[in-house]
């Protein structure tokens, strides 16, 4: 293998077995959606991990450093092959980091902590470190802390003491006041560590009863009396990290604080991925400062340090595994993406969201000749497709006025026209809640816009139909208004997601609310994992509120442009 391609941070995959309660749901015969191609068990070179959705024909392949399948009793072999080589380096003054990354329930805590019978990477590492300490006369101390919503808490002290992160004059990061407990035997370690585990924040997310919502960091620091004349003490440390679960908000049904937690978790995981990627690509700037966790780990990821990322997978979760492996592979190397049936090329034809939106509006609100719009004042019939092809993408999102004559109409004479403008007013209402113009529309004009039956589901705007698929009687214009608002919003969001997946970087930059940094992140993210919904933007470190604001800005700009010509009376 070409040395220049070697990852500085190794990224390996561990697939947990199916659990006994998961087997009946798979008709007693579960098959893993994850496998490895061309496996060479003795090699420390690349492996190709293959993911296949058993329910569809979807397949993806990613290259990573090693694969540990569910059939292996693999904690010990992961330790011996991947973690053990890092330990002697600590005694030479080098730092190292091992972290378990993956969705909630994928086996991260099991991998790091293990059970009484099968110790995980943390106790296995501790035991090896202690035996080297005995031989060399070195001292071992442990610290255990968690990073929870970008704050750091000491887990070896009662009372959730918050730890302040400080930079010294040399730019080194210090956790001021963090406890360090000397450990001389594995039983001492078990005692101190298990008390820390109890303090770690857990909450019920609906995916895993005691899901870990914080990043748990165990630090084992060793100091070895120096040899030779200087007699300087040599210090090194190993960080063993059980990362918080990378969450899909829609699946975990998070609300309130859960959502904030979840977006912070996803932000810091994305920041970690960016740091690893920058290190592996020898980029001049490593974005350590983008999250608390990466800032704290700065001295144990870059420089002469070594790191290992264990991507943990649940064999029955295809989508979730794709998310985990794609982020892991993205972190590992810039050119490791092998093949994806969903990979999107930069579009050859410009995306015309305006055309899509308009066609959709027509199909929702009109009962006759939905493909055509009368274009006042000339009265010429304009084919929507022809018109769309001549409207550049920019006209939707730039500050230039729209050239489409349909939008410039101030004429309320025809019913068709009134319907059209009413629908656009509705859109404006949906996207710009505080908009004085809306109040200027006469009630009956608005009411006359909607003659088609509407599925009414005010609380869950992301779906267009009710769960039981029944029509609900909508009696007042406000009911109609609310119902239309919900489905218009979800449709518009989907169009927006499509654009984010397909627009070129330059086109993204023309969208209101997207700057250079976000455009670059979106392009990087979709290379490995196309966006499925706006929530996926949380993976690049945006909060759900920021995502929504970004969408609102883009959508509102549609109407800002229209205001140039359309005066609503
Ligand atoms: P996470 O920390 O990623 O949320 P856990 O480590 O809690 O996930 O694992 C989820 C469940 O799977 C737990 O019940 C755990 O005991 C079980 N599990 C994980 N890995 C294994 C394994 N190798 N063998 C048996 N059970 C496992
Ligand atoms: Mg856990």
What's the layout of helices and strands?
Elements: E1 9-15, E2 34-37, E3 47-52, E4 59-64, E5 66-68, H1 75-83, H2 87-90, E6 96-102, H3 108-113, H4 121-136, E7 139-148, E8 151-154, E9 164-167, E10 173-176, E11 181-182, H5 186-199, E12 202-203, E13 211-212, E14 215-224, E15 234-242, H6 249-252, H7 257-280, H8 292-296, H9 298-301, E16 306-313, H10 318-332, E17 337-340, H11 353-365, E18 372-375, E19 380-383, H12 384-390, H13 394-397, H14 415-431, H15 443-447, H16 477-502, H17 505-510, H18 516-528, H19 544-563
Parallel strand pairs: 1-5, 1-16, 6-15, 6-16
Antiparallel strand pairs: 2-3, 3-4, 4-17, 7-8, 7-11, 7-14, 9-10, 12-13, 14-15, 18-19
Helix pairs in contact: 7-10, 11-12, 11-16, 14-16, 14-19
């Amino acid at each position: 293998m070409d040395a220049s391609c070697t990852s500085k941070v190794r990224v390996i995959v561990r697939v947990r077995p199916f659990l006994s309660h998961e087997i009946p749901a798979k008709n007693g015969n579960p098959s893993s959606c994850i496998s490895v191609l061309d496996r060479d068990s003795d090699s420390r070179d690349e492996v190709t991990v293959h993911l296949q959705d058993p329910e569809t024909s979807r397949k993806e392949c990613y290259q990573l450093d090693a694969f540990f399948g569910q059939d292996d009793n693999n904690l010990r072999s992961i330790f011996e092959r991947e973690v053990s080589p890092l330990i002697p380096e600590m005694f030479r003054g080098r730092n190292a980091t091992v972290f378990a990354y993956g969705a909630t329930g994928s086996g991260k805590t099991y991998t790091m902590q293990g059970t009484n019978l099968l110790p995980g990477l943390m106790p296995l590492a501790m035991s090896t470190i202690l035996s080297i300490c005995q031989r060399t006369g070195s001292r071992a101390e442990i610290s255990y802390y968690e990073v929870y919503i970008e704050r750091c808490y000491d887990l070896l002290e009662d009372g959730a003491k918050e730890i302040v992160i400080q930079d010294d004059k040399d730019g080194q990061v210090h956790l001021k006041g963090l406890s360090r407990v000397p450990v001389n035997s594995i039983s001492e370690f078990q005692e101190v560590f298990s008390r820390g585990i109890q303090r770690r924040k857990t909450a019920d997310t609906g995916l895993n009863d005691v899901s870990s919502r914080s990043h748990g960091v165990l630090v084992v620091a060793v100091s070895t009396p120096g040899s030779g004349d200087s007699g300087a003490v040599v210090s090194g440390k190993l960080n063993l990290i059980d990362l918080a679960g990378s969450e899909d908000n829609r699946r975990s049904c998070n609300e309130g604080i859960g959502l904030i937690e979840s977006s912070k978790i996803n932000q810091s995981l994305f920041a970690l991925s960016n740091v690893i990627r920058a290190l592996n690509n020898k980029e001049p700037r490593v974005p350590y400062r983008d999250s608390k966790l990466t800032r704290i780990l700065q001295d144990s990821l870059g420089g002469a340090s070594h790191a290992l990322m264990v991507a943990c997978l649940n064999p029955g979760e295809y989508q979730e595994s794709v998310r985990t492996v794609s982020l892991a592979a993205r972190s590992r190397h810039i050119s490791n993406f092998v093949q994806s049936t969903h990979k999107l090329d930069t579009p050859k034809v410009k995306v015309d969201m305006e055309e899509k939106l308009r066609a959709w509006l027509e199909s929702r609100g009109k009962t006759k000749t939905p493909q055509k719009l009368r274009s006042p004042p000339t009265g010429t019939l304009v084919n929507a497709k022809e018109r769309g092809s001549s409207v550049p993408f920019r006209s939707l999102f730039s500050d230039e006025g729209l050239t489409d004559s349909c939008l410039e109409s101030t004429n309320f004479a025809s019913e068709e026209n009134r319907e059209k403008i009413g629908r656009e007013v509705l859109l404006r209402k949906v996207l710009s809640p505080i908009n004085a113009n809306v109040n200027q529309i006469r009630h009956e004009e608005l009411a006359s816009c909607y003659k088609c039956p509407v599925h009414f589901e005010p609380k869950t705007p992301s779906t267009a139909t009710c769960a039981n698929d029944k029509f609900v009687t909508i009696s007042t214009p406000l009911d109609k208004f609310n119902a239309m608002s919900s489905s218009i919003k979800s449709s518009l969001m989907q169009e927006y997601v499509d654009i984010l997946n397909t627009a070129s970087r330059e086109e993204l930059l023309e969208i209101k609310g997207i700057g250079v940094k976000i455009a670059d992140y979106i392009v990087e993210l979709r290379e490995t994992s196309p966006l499925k919904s706006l929530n996926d933007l949380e993976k690049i470190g945006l909060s759900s509120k920021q995502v929504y604001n970004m969408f609102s800005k883009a959508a509102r700009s549609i109407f800002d442009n229209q205001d140039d010509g359309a005066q609503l009376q």
